[in-house]
């Protein structure tokens, strides 16, 4: 039985001068960065929808907007975006608590 070929498996992770541990660390960093960027964009979108709803409310109260449909659509977008952001936040906090309760 030839076991020398098994030793070459560790060389598969060495692509472009990186060893397997560095690649895993970079993948974890990239995954966290992607997740963080998505969360930041979700918060920015929620803020934008809330600001648009407030502007529509002011325009309606000043008489610049006479269509209640547009006002309700802007308010509903802001409300749904806020509910979704809160639900995601709650799930992340639950996952964090679950991780903190793990015992090694």
Describe the structure.
- The protein is mainly alpha-helical and 104 residues long.
- It has one domain.
- Helices cover 73% and strands 0% of the residues.
- It contains 2 helices and no strands.
- Helix 1 packs antiparallel against helix 2.
- The longest helix is centred in the middle third of the chain and has 42 residues, at 20-61.
- It is elongated and about 60 Å long.
- The two termini are 38 Å apart.
- 5% of the residues are buried.
Short characterization:
The protein is an all-alpha fold and 104 residues long.
User: What share of the residues lie within helices?
Assistant: over 70%
Number of strands: 0
* Structural class by helix and strand composition: mainly alpha
The average pLDDT value, as a whole number, equals 82
Rg (CA only) = 25 Å
From the structure above, extract its key features.
mainly alpha; 2 helices; 104 residues; 0% strand
